[in-house]
TrEMBL record:
Keywords: Membrane, Transmembrane, Transmembrane helix. The chain crosses the membrane at residues 43-65. It holds the Pfam family TpcC. The keyword Membrane applies. It comes from the Bacteria. This is Conjugal transfer protein. It comes from Bacillus haynesii. The lineage of its organism: Bacteria, Bacillati, Bacillota, Bacilli, Bacillales.
Length: 354
């Protein structure tokens, strides 16, 4: 009987146990882990501003480099257009003339024989600039092929000097004589037995022709050294006279006609009388910078005079005629004088030959 009582209890226990086991078998779903996204807005902003800063920096550097490059290029252009210090230095005319004396004699004088021609060529080359590159062979520039006579230099003088970018052109007026053979037919009287007859025969005679030309010589210099930069050439002599009009700056001023005009004219006549007759040291009391002719000429007259009043005194322009003492040949000269006055006495502050 007791075993039957325990059956219901065991069934009840097994029922709850099976339920518990089933409950255990049921797996709980794992909770999904929620990932919180990071705030990347700051990183993006920093990156963007960094890129912009770098771009701005590169732009500024490019602009600065461009300006500097342009400045350097401009400086190079300016320097290239400026003459070098060597070329900028003015050439010494007296020194260049002394240098060219020998060259002119060698160039103009030509003697028609092989030895003289070769010697002339060698001597001329000593005056020439040495070039690394040339349009022609240097040995050919003083060749004298096919000549038929001599050339003799008579006289020469410096006529003009023209400054160029690369050289100075010295122009000399040269007078020379060309000597050349001329074949002529002449008539001669010869004996024909007891009689005489006239016959014609050809003879060679030397003739000469005098010429005056302008010899143009391009010259370069480096310090006190000179060289001829190219083969010289001849041109016609041109006239140096020209019609040059100078505007008189004093035309707008009114001439002085006041009460002191007569005393000024009287003073100037006395002044020029002493100027031609006295010595330099005797003129100290009349002029600031003494000057005198010491009797070389005699005073004739003042042929023209214009007086202008200034703040410090008077300015005078005058034409004075002097004369040679021995034969009275007139010598006319223009002067300008600045006068000051002190107690009725005039004094020459400035004295110029016009």
């Amino acid at each position: 009987m007791p075993e039957k009582e325990n059956l219901p209890e065991k069934k009840e226990e097994s029922f709850f146990r099976s339920i518990a086991q089933k409950i255990k078998r049921v797996q709980r779903p794992e909770k999904a882990k929620k990932k919180v996204p990071r705030d990347r807005s700051k990183i993006v902003a920093v990156t963007l501003w960094s890129c912009l800063s770098v771009l701005l920096l590169f732009s500024l550097l490019s602009a600065v480099l461009s300006v500097n490059t342009r400045s350097v290029v401009n400086d190079i252009r300016i320097d290239s257009t400026k003459p070098s210090k060597e070329n900028d230095q003015k050439i010494s005319i007296p020194a260049a003339e002394n240098f060219l004396t020998g060259f002119i004699n060698e160039y103009v004088n030509v003697k028609n024989d092989h030895e003289s021609i070769e010697k002339r060529q060698q001597n001329l080359e000593n005056y020439m600039i040495k070039q690394t590159e040339s349009d022609y062979e240097e040995s050919e520039r003083f060749q004298l092929d096919g000549i038929k006579g001599d050339r003799v230099l008579n006289d020469y003088s410096l006529y003009n000097v023209k400054e160029g970018d690369k050289y100075s052109l010295f122009q000399y007026k040269v007078t020379y004589t060309n000597l050349f053979p001329v074949e002529k037919e002449v008539e001669k009287t010869v004996k024909d037995g007891k009689k005489k007859k006239k016959v014609k025969e050809k003879v060679t005679e030397n003739e000469k022709a005098e010429k005056q030309m302008l010899l143009n010589i391009p010259v370069i210099s480096k310090g006190d050294s000179f060289a001829v930069s190219a083969v010289p050439y001849f041109t016609q002599v041109y006239d140096l006279r020209g019609e040059i009009t100078v505007k008189d700056t004093d035309d707008t001023r009114d001439e002085y006609t006041g009460e002191r005009k007569d005393s000024i004219e009287k003073f100037l006549n006395t002044f020029f009388e002493k100027y031609v007759s006295e010595k330099k040291e005797d003129m100290v009391y009349m002029m600031k910078e003494p000057e005198a002719l010491a009797g070389s000429l005699v005073f004739g007259e003042i042929t023209d005079m214009k007086i202008f009043e200034t703040k410090n005194g008077f300015e005078v322009f005058c034409v004075v005629q002097f004369k040679e003492k021995e034969n009275e040949i007139p010598v006319v000269e223009n002067f300008s004088l600045k006068l000051t006055e002190n107690s009725g006495q005039y004094y020459v502050q400035n004295f110029k030959h016009q």
